[in-house]
Write the structure tokens for this entry.
Amino acid sequence: MITSAHFMVLSAVLFFIGAVGVVTRRNLIVIFMSVEIMLNAGNLAFVAIANRLGTIDGQTIVFFVMTVAAAEAAVGLAVIIAMFRNAETIKADELSSLRW
Amino acid sequence: MVDAAHATHVAQTAYAVEYLRFIVLAPLLGAVLNIAFGRRLPRAVVGTIACGAVLLAFVTSLRAFSAMPADGYLLDHAYQWFSAGGLNINLALVSDRLSALMCLIVTGVGFLIHVYSLGYMSHDPSLARYFAYLNLFSAAMLVLVLGENLVVMFVGWEGVGLCSYLLIGFWYEDPAKAAAGMKAFIVNRIGDAGFLLGTFALFWAMSDQGHASLSFADINAAAPALGTATATAAALLLFIGATGKSAQIPLYVWLPDAMAGPTPVSALIHAATMVTAGIYMVARLNGLYLEAPAVMKFIATIGAMTALFAATIAITQNDIKKVLAYSTVSQLGYMFLALGVGAFGAAIFHVMTHAFFKACLFLGAGSVIHAMSGEQDIRRMGGLRYIMPVTFATFFISTLAIAGVPGLAGFFSKDEILASVFAEGRLGLWAIGLLTAGMTAFYMMRLFVLTFMGEFRGEAHSYEHVHESPGSMAMPLVVLAFLAAVGGYLGVPHVLGGSNQIGQYLAPVVGLHELHLGGLVEFGLMASSIAIAGLGIWLALGIYMTSPGADENLSQMNSGVYRAAAGGYYVDNFYNLIFVKGAIRAGTVLWKRVDEAVIDRIANGTGTLVQELSARTRRWSTGNVSHYALTFLIGLLVLAAVLALKGLG
Amino acid sequence: MSPLIFYPVAAAAVLSALAVVTARSPVRSAMALVATLVSLAACFAMLQAHLVAALQIIVYAGAVMVLFLFVIMLLNLQDDPPETGRAGLRFGAGGVAVVLAGGFAKVLWEHSAGDGAVLAESFGTTKVVARSLFSDYLVPFELTSVLLLVAVVGAVVLARRDDAPGQD
């Protein structure tokens, strides 16, 4: 029997896979995609909890998270384009001019 | 010998009035006007404002004096100033028999000196500033006198100190005069600290007694309940304040230097009014002081010592104003001697007569200095009696008055003090007082003779410029000389058929110090003081009439003692060595050893430490987002670990 | 919910997520991410979140991923070189992530074991979610529209060339 607990564990695993991606990758776009995985892991946890508690609020919040993710994707990708245009790179370790 | 008895304090009723405030506000307004607009106003208007303001205060004081109820006092309660805990401090003025009399002296003598200043300061470019300060001083002095409680009195106490500083250093272009002002201010600060501590002690003790009040009436009424130890501590601390303001040992040193100010200022502040603030304060708090017999003994001793000490210095001085300054210190000592034996009325009587003759003497001296174009050395004067008859006559009357010649003001008040001391059985102090009386007669007559008698000893061409002073200066001299002559008849003792009116008048406030000596003893005392005054005068006449340069021989014959006295017994040098140099040395040590060696090192060390730490921690700031993200993740791990160890609940 | 459906879906989600993180080519990462999102949509469906599942496909797998691919193409990115010289970072991150994932999984498992609530047949339908969205969450919902507007304007401003025509 599969319960919401199984989905919670899956959510935790996906979240930290995304986190490893954020830390280890150099490519800003891949980092960005890893962030999307983390967001979706969070969504999964919300939906699982809604299921477990029998309240709809968890699903409603996922709706908002998706909206914010969409907005973030639009702005974030625009930032990456602007950055690429100025620095000719989207490698995270080469973009360090804000150090001091 | 019978112990002097003190009349118990009669319960006093307060009668509310609303005009006492104008006594203070009139000169205050005058000061404000002259500060704000004085420089643009004609000189005549400036002088009129200043004199008019004080005249208004005098008239209002007269009204308060004549409205004095038989069984109480006048109270002008403006508003409650502040309230802290159980303590309510009211901005209230009280005109009882003591303060009404003082008000008359301050405004009356003050008015005469204002008028005199019109002539004396007529050539000074800063006339408006001068009159503004003088009016401000009057306002502060009247606040001091009329204040209903210690806090309001302290406002006036500080105010007169400030004005004294401003007026001593009035000619601030001269560094010596500015320094004299600062000396007066600093020495006064030492006393003021005592006054403040005394106020705190009284507040503390009064709160313990359940009625947190600092009004004089409450303090005097509650004094017996405070206990001897508390009363002694508070009274002693307040007396320290009095030694500062009234120039007693050990804080008298500022007064001779205060003569750097314009001479009318010396007359008003440093002879007639401000320096009597300490005496007034002790008399005001007589209920408290009577509960502290040890302090009373101390006051009497300090007073007698100061009287003698200053008199010996006065004999050796050659500056006309310095002689009068030391004479003032000496006379103030007399007043404290009277306070110390419980003869508060006698002290206030002497305050009054002293205000008359000393103001007259100072103004006379000012007249001489004015005529001599600033010359103050009596060795270069002489023979002025022909040119300055008014000054000569008034100075002569006042000299006789201070010397204690029978019939003149000083005789009655000084005699009452000496009789009171004798009646208390303080024969040692009485002897000192008597000796001082003789010395007073001697140095005053010396001053008079060297200034006015004999032949002119200055340079011939300066003699031609000498002139009698104008009317505005002569009028106050005449009025004051008249008062110096007749002022004593307010306190003619019973033994001479008088009724000691002033003592009777003040009795409801300060108690009556009855002598119980018996007529013969009183006559004997009187005769002894007449005799010693006569001796002093005779000696001075004998020596200085014939040889004005006698001091030269004296200083050669008895050089050590004479020079010590002439140098003020080197007290200034001593204070300079111990306190001033000591403070500088302590400051240097603190600067080098503490500030530079410790505090600077701590401050610089903090900077160096931060720099060193930053040099290490800046390596964490790589600018690489990945590293920041990892730090973030590690932070999450730490947070999770903490929560796991604490348990999730 | 049958284990027969759950475990394959979960395995697909984890494996495709790993592929996103490890793929050398950004295009491959993006395609793997699409697979992850679809797997998660299946999970949502299993949890009776039908509307959310549909939105996941339409908004994420559809719109957002197209945007990603579009940017990758626009920037004409090459394959990343093999990761070298950042072993500390990689192993540090991997170690911390494994520890944290294990800890979180354990805690979540222990705290949500047992049966959940009994759900109504209509749970997760458009009607029910919409009722919540337009009653309890009306104000946040309206604010979302402002957020999207700001994002659109921001994206245009950021991405536009400085010398683009029409600039002031």
In short: The radius of gyration of chain C is 21 Å. Chain C has six helices and no strands. Chain C touches chain A through 85 residues (CB under 8 Å).
